[in-house]
Specification:
By secondary structure, this protein is mostly beta strands. About 5% of the residues lie in helices and about 45% in strands. The protein contains 5 helices and 58 strands.
C-alpha cells in the first residue's frame, strides 16, 4: 500500500519466518507448520514491511474415553470424559469435542459428554477431537427389582464360616449378573463379613446380615451359638413295662460346662423291637429286655440303658394268715412274680386294709392291730392284688408282770433311787440284767449302793450277772447277796417259769459259743421246756452299737430255732428295741427274736449313735424300767421313764 492506503501492484514481496523450526513460509506467502509452537511471519517490499503471528497446534494422535465400560440404568445419567494426547504422549487440552451416539433410543449424549440412559440395550458413543475419533460401548442395564438372600437364617458356632449368596432379579424374575453388591453385619463383634459375603462367626449372639444392590436390600438372621460339648441322659430308674412309656431327660452342655437349650436332638434305640423312642425322647416298652437309647446333637452323643421289665403276674403276701394281739405291730412282705415265676424287684406296691377299724397298714406293709376282728390286708402292684387275712384278738387271761433294767446301782448318783421308786409302784417279778452294783459288784457295793434302793425288792428279784460282778473274784459279792436266787455260783445261769412263760437267765461272762457248756445247757433246757412263749435275759447284747459281741450268737440262734420271743440285755446305758430277727441280723417277722437293751437302771445314760439294721427305737435321754405283761399266748411291753421324763415306748405281740 502507498501512503494513501491504496494497493500497489508489481512490487516484489519478500517472505520470512521468525522461527523456521516451527513454521516456514514460501515466496507466495504459504506457511507450513513444522512443530507445535509460535512463529512471526514477516512480509517486506522496498522499505516497508508487515508481520503476523502463527501458532502451530499439536496433532491429536490418541483419544481415551472414561469410564471404558460405562453402564447405567434407564433414566439415569453418566458423565463421560475424553483425554487427548499428541504423538509424544503429551496431554492436549482445550480442543473442542464432538460427541455422538449411534442409537439415541438406547442412550443419548450431550455436547458436554453427559450420557443419559433411555432403554435397556447397548449404544456406541463417539468422541471426535481434531479429526481424531474414539468410541465406547454404553450399556443401559435392566433395573434390579428384587434381591434374594440365602440362607435367610443361619446357625454357626464360633470360628465357623458360611458363604451367603445374593441373587439379583429384574422385573420379569430373570437373574441379573455382574452388579456390585454391598455386604454388612449389624454387630461385628458377633461375626465379620467379607466383600463377597463370606461370614466368620466370632462369639455367641444374634446379628443381621444385609446385602444391598442399587437400592434393593435383603436381610438374613445369623445366630452364633456355642457348640455342643457333651450330651447326657437321665432315664430315672430306666425301667418301663410293655406298653408303658418313660420320658428321658437330655442335658446339653458346651465345652465349658454351660447348659445349652434350643438345639436339635436326634433319638435312636438300638433295640426297637424291645423299646422305641420318639423324637421328643419318650421311650415305649415293646417287650421285656434291655435296650440302649442314644441322643445325639451336633456330633455329640449320650446314652441311657433302658430295661423293659416283665409285668407283675402274681402278688404273694408273706407270711400267710396271722393272729395279732391287740396293739401288735407286724410287718408283712409282698413278693412279686412274673408269669414264669421269676421274682420281680423294684416295683411299687400299694397296701390297704379292708377294715381299718380292725387293723391299719402303712406303705411298707407294717400292720397295726387296733380292734378285735378279722380283716384282709391287700398288696397291689401294677393292678395285680395279693391278700392276707389278719385276725386281731385280745387276751382275756390275767397276765404276769416282769419288770426291771440293767446297769443299776452306784453310790455316786441318784438314778437307782429314781428307778427303785418306779418298782415301788409296779407289782410283779423284778429282773435285773447285770452290772447291778458299781463299781466292782463287791459285797460292799451291794450292801452300800444296791441294798438301799433296788434291794428293797430283793425278795421278788431274779438276777443275772454282768461284767462288773466279775471284777470281784468269782462274782462272790453277787452270789453271796442273792444266794440261791442267782443259781449255781459255778455257772451263774438258770431258768424258771413265770405264768405260761419259760425264762432263761444266762451269764455272758461265760461263752455261749457252739459246744460250750452254757450253749449245751441252753439247748437241753429249751428241749425240756417246749413252751409257746419263751424269753432269755443276759447282760451283753448280740446286737448293740457298743457291743456287737459274738459270744452269744449261737445261743441267740438256739433261741430263734426254738421259737423264743424275747431277749433282754443291759450293758449299754440306754434303751433300744429291735424288730424280730435271726442271729445273723436278718429281719424275720414270723419267727424272729425281739431284742431289748435296757441299760437304764440308774448308773448312767447315753445315746447310741451308731445306726444298726432292724433297730426300731433308741433312747438315751433318761433312766427307766421295762415293764412286760406276759399272757399265755402274747405279751406287751412298756418303757416307763422316771419322774420328769416323758419318753415312752409300748407295744404288743403274739407268741410264736
Amino acid at each position: 500500500m502507498d501512503a494513501g492506503g491504496s494497493a500497489l501492484a508489481g512490487l516484489e514481496i519478500d517472505w520470512s519466518s521468525g522461527d523456521s523450526g516451527v513454521a516456514t513460509v514460501d515466496g507466495s506467502g504459504l506457511v507450513t507448520g513444522l512443530m507445535p509452537g509460535s512463529a512471526r511471519i514477516v512480509a517486506s517490499a522496498d522499505t516497508a514491511s508487515g508481520e503476523t503471528g502463527v501458532t502451530v497446534l499439536a496433532q491429536v494422535t490418541e483419544l481415551t474415553i472414561s469410564p471404558s465400560s460405562p453402564s447405567l440404568l434407564p433414566g439415569t445419567t453418566l458423565q463421560l470424559i475424553v483425554s487427548a494426547e499428541d504423538a509424544w504422549g503429551g496431554p492436549i487440552d482445550g480442543r473442542p469435542v464432538l460427541w455422538a451416539t449411534d442409537d439415541p433410543s438406547v442412550a443419548t449424549v450431550s455436547a458436554a459428554g453427559l450420557v443419559a440412559g433411555v432403554h435397556p440395550g447397548s449404544a456406541t458413543v463417539t468422541a471426535t477431537v481434531s479429526k481424531k475419533t474414539e468410541e465406547v460401548s454404553v450399556l443401559v442395564v435392566e433395573p434390579i427389582s428384587a434381591l434374594d438372600l440365602a440362607p435367610r437364617t443361619a446357625i454357626l458356632h464360633p470360628r465357623e464360616e458360611l458363604q451367603f449368596t445374593a441373587t439379583l432379579r429384574d422385573a420379569d424374575g430373570g437373574i441379573i449378573e455382574g452388579r456390585p453388591i454391598g455386604w454388612t453385619v449389624s454387630d461385628p463383634g458377633i461375626a465379620s463379613i467379607t466383600e463377597d459375603g463370606k461370614v466368620t462367626a466370632r462369639r455367641s449372639g444374634t446379628a443381621s446380615i444385609t446385602a444391598d444392590a442399587e437400592g434393593q436390600q435383603a436381610v438374613a438372621r445369623l445366630i452364633v451359638q456355642a457348640a455342643v460339648g457333651s450330651v447326657s441322659l437321665n432315664a430315672g430308674g430306666g425301667k418301663v413295662r410293655p406298653g408303658g412309656t418313660l420320658q428321658l431327660e437330655v442335658t446339653l452342655k458346651d465345652e465349658n460346662g454351660n447348659l445349652l437349650d434350643e438345639r436339635d436332638v436326634a433319638w435312636t434305640s438300638d433295640q426297637p423291637n424291645v423299646a422305641t423312642v420318639s423324637r421328643s425322647g419318650v421311650v415305649k416298652g415293646i417287650r421285656p429286655g434291655p435296650a440302649t437309647v442314644t441322643a445325639s446333637s451336633e456330633g455329640k452323643e449320650g446314652r441311657a440303658a433302658v430295661t423293659v421289665e416283665e409285668p407283675v403276674a402274681r402278688v404273694v403276701v408273706t407270711p400267710g394268715t396271722r393272729r395279732l394281739v391287740l396293739g401288735e405291730v407286724f410287718g408283712f412282705r409282698a413278693s412279686l412274680r412274673a408269669a414264669d415265676g421269676e421274682v420281680l424287684t423294684g416295683r411299687q406296691v400299694e397296701w390297704s386294709s379292708e377294715r381299718p377299724g380292725v387293723a391299719t397298714v402303712n406303705k411298707e406293709g407294717r400292720v397295726t392291730a387296733v380292734g378285735e376282728g378279722t380283716t384282709e390286708i391287700e398288696a397291689i402292684s401294677e393292678g395285680i392284688e395279693g391278700v392276707v387275712t389278719v385276725v386281731v384278738w385280745q387276751p382275756d387271761d390275767q397276765p404276769v408282770v416282769l419288770v426291771g433294767a440293767g446297769d443299776v446301782a452306784s453310790c455316786l448318783g441318784q438314778g437307782d433311787e429314781q428307778t427303785a421308786r418306779l418298782l415301788d409302784q409296779i407289782p410283779g417279778v423284778v429282773f435285773i440284767a447285770g452290772d447291778n452294783a458299781y463299781p466292782d459288784g463287791s459285797e460292799a457295793d451291794y450292801a452300800d449302793c444296791y441294798e438301799p434302793t433296788w434291794g428293797r425288792h430283793k425278795s421278788r428279784t431274779r438276777p443275772v450277772p454282768g461284767n462288773r460282778e466279775y471284777l470281784t473274784p468269782n462274782a462272790r459279792g453277787y452270789f453271796n447277796y442273792f444266794g440261791a436266787a442267782a443259781g449255781d455260783p459255778a455257772t451263774g445261769y438258770y431258768s424258771y417259769e413265770l405264768g405260761a412263760w419259760h425264762i432263761l437267765a444266762l451269764n455272758t461272762q461265760f461263752t455261749g459259743r457252739e459246744g460250750s457248756p452254757q450253749a449245751e445247757w441252753v439247748k437241753a433246757d429249751l428241749a425240756a421246756h417246749p413252751k409257746k412263749c419263751t424269753l432269755a435275759i443276759y447282760h451283753v447284747p448280740l446286737f448293740g452299737p457298743d457291743s456287737l459281741s459274738p459270744r452269744m450268737e449261737h445261743v441267740f440262734d438256739l433261741l430263734h430255732k426254738a421259737g423264743a420271743e424275747l431277749v433282754i440285755n443291759g450293758h449299754e446305758h440306754n434303751y433300744q428295741r429291735f424288730a424280730p430277727q435271726t442271729a445273723k441280723g436278718v429281719y424275720d417277722p414270723e419267727r424272729g427274736v425281739r431284742e431289748f437293751i435296757v441299760g437304764t437302771g440308774g448308773k448312767g445314760v447315753g445315746v447310741a449313735d451308731r445306726t444298726l439294721p432292724n433297730r426300731e427305737v433308741a433312747y438315751g435321754g433318761g433312766f427307766g424300767v421295762l415293764k412286760l405283761k406276759l399272757y399265755q399266748e402274747a405279751y406287751s411291753w412298756e418303757f416307763v421313764s422316771v419322774a420328769g421324763k416323758t419318753f415312752s415306748d409300748s407295744g404288743s405281740a403274739s407268741c410264736h
